[in-house]
Structures
1.
Amino acid sequence: FFKNRILFMALLLTMLLIFVFSILIYTVQKTNFDNTKNEFRNTLSNSIGQTINSTIDAYTTLAQTILETTNAKKLMKEGKREELYSELKSKWKTWSSINPDFKIMLFHKADGTAFLRMHKPEVYNDYLLDLRPMVKSMNKEKKLLIGYETGKYSTVFRIITPIFYQGEYIGSLDFGINPNYFVKKIEEFTKYKGALFIKNENLKLFKRESTFEVDDYELQ
């Protein structure tokens, strides 16, 4: 009886040790997984932030360069659309060839109409305030605006710079960058594959056929 009792206690102790070690192994594995997941999240978040910030810096600098080193402000104030297009045409071709995702360069007037689209110079004088909340905000706040917005032709990441001529607000310079630019840049930095999803309500004017949807966001 005593021998059987010792064997039972040894078996019970062995089972207890196995249970404890199993818990420890699970805890270590879960901690490692959580750490890996957090590391992935932090890496991705930092990469997105750095990519967006560097893009904003580059294109706000470009906007200021255009406004300070060309006759853009003066020509816009004088309503000389064709002269402005001629002055910037070769530069626009260079900039858009360096970054093919740099899709839009648009001058708005203070009255909310399009003065010149470098990407579509044949389309102008159309009223934008009813369609473009960022243009409306620009005319009200007259300060740098950054964000995603769907316009007449596409959904893009926009950097909009106010234009002042001799102290008078005369409009703004609107840059639009295809959001896939950020997906590609993040892949370059992190080697993580990405995809672009856009909320359905923002795809009324610009939508590609898609059958993949997550929480009202559709793959584009």
2.
Amino acid sequence: MKYTIHKFIISLITSVGLIAVVQPALAADATIGGTVTHAANGTPVTTLLIYAEDAITGDLSYGYTNDTTGVYSITITDDGSGTAGEYVVYNYVITSDEDNVIFIRSQETVVLTEGENKTGIDLSLTRRARFVGIVYAS
């Protein structure tokens, strides 16, 4: 008797189409963006590499500042584990546009929700002191 009832229920579910197929959620990339400027005068820092490091996995995503405005955008690609989490955004210390300039690393911590596009993560960079010359004695 039990076998007949189970067979009937399975037959009913199959014929009515009550079996639901679960589709995985589509990947949702996220972005982090902002502007990078010189701390001394507020002018844009151009062609500078900016990183977004996942605070848990250490995975890096990166982008470059724009050639004239210092604006950057980093796309964080969803590789299946999602994009929600905490990221540390920081700069590389040199740019090809400014010879003999080395910047102090600046960083911001950013918390993203899944697929979020976060803007306004601005960095203001200070140059490191640098001396150029000849050493005659040490």
3.
Amino acid sequence: CEVARTSGGNQIHTHSTIVDESIGTDIEKDGDQIIRETIDNERFYLVYQPIVSLKGDKSEQYEVLLRITDADGHVILPGQFLAIAARSGHSAEIDRWVISKTFTTYAEHGEDHDSTFFIKVTSATLADPEFPDWVGEKLLEYDLDFKNIVFEISERSVISNINQAAAFVETMHSMNCRVALEHFGASDQATQI
């Protein structure tokens, strides 16, 4: 369930003991090295999951999902990878890669489409004081319509980093980007506030 949820929700993950445990063991053992090699060898790719309106809205909306392949070409889902990336300090670097690739896709997609991209950001990105300036530079570089970018923050990240999250939301709004709260009400901590 956790693998499906962290892979973007609205999907299933069929557990395979052989695949999941062997990949999990290898990543846990050599996590930092595997993540560094994955970043250096660009073994990431993005999947754009359409979000379809059931009320007839014709605008195009896409959830941006990260996928990773290991050296042998096996797909590693984010639920098996991102926690290790967070522990090894690579989350913000991965977020920037995802955002850059999404902006490239958005720019290539053309202005004919009214497309909105939902991009997840991690706690590490919320805490990065240089991130808003970097986003602003990228949006101008690609000449994108800022209102069509929605950054998604998990409820857990907001609870853990309330001051950084508030500053992040304020800065993104000042650039006309939107921010969404992901998995609202799913955190055990939410009931304690």
4.
Amino acid sequence: MAEKFLFSKGFEVFSTEEYAVANPIARREYSETYRLTRRKDGRPFLMKVYLADNMPQDLKFGNEPRLISYLNTSGISSLLSINSWGEFRTQEGKLFPYVISDYFERGLLSDRLLTDGPMSALESIGICLDIAGILLNLRTPDGGNFVHCDVCPDNIMFGRNENGDLHAHLIDNDHIVHLNGRTAPENWWEDVDLRYTAPEAFCSEGVKRNSDVYSLGVILYRCYYGRYPWKFDRERYGKLDWRKKMGVLMNAR
């Protein structure tokens, strides 16, 4: 029997503002995602709750999710559309860290590509420029020296700004990493779409400052041409574990 979500519809969330759970969205091995409604105006938000005991150690610092540790020590929250974060404590004293971020009602890039196919050059470039701007700001003195490590169509959503203009935004930031030196190892790839991951990330070299740029290049190609920039057996690829997927992709590239 599938495990139940931690929180049900109507559960009240008190962070920097008051919210209520509208509905659960997804449950993964180490996290649950919910849509929230802000009490004061009914505006929707996303909340991701971490099941820290189930979270791979490579995505944590001690017992704390790596993302939340970075949010506590840097100014990157606005770049990632994150509004607040904290932790729930149960009566038994168990802690569940959470992050509340903007909800973008225009949907995922992956859904857009699946239903409508390739995009125009103007649309494709516009999406990549929006994401490039976010990635660039993550590397400024204010943003720090961060690499997202998981830039793919499943982690790009569309939303309109205050002027009604449509823009692309990054979501799902669990793999974000701070580069203390020129590179950094990243060892947890089981929930990453490796087709968009830079080749050096598969090696001992680790991710670099421009590893996200590779991901963005694959996205640009996929948006415009409707396919990947190299050939591989998709059906066979889908049946492999992540280590073997790395081998297939390295060979294809």
